[in-house]
Amino acid sequence: MSDFDLDLRTVEEHIDDELEIEGSIVLGVLDGETPAEEWLETISKGNVLVLNVEGDVNELAAGFARDVREEGGNLVHFRGFLLVTPPGVDVSTERL
User: Count of domains in the chain?
Assistant: First the structure.
């Protein structure tokens, strides 16, 4: 036998810690009715927004888009939806 010692319990504990995901996917409508502060608060709690855009996305998201980007989050407009993610959650567009 080799001198290699692997403690699988310790490894599993570290894997569980690293894979722990907080937050939810929040569905909503971006139509100007919801204040920008509410969207920002939702993102700050680790949630991902999937918003159905009803109108001009640039105008409707202007109140929160810059703050999301400055904090390290992402915004992706795709097929009438705006996906907004908190820092640390990337959106892969490689398959588009």
Answer: 1
CA atoms within 13 A on the CB side of 8: 0
Domain coverage including residue 43: 20-82
In a domain, 60, yes or no: yes
Q: Show pLDDT as tens, one digit a residue, over the chain (96 residues).
A: 555 565 666 666 665 555 555 789 999 999 999 999 999 999 999 999 999 999 999 999 999 999 999 999 999 999 999 999 999 999 998 988
- Confirm whether 6 is domain-assigned: no
Kindly report the pTM of this predicted structure: 0.77
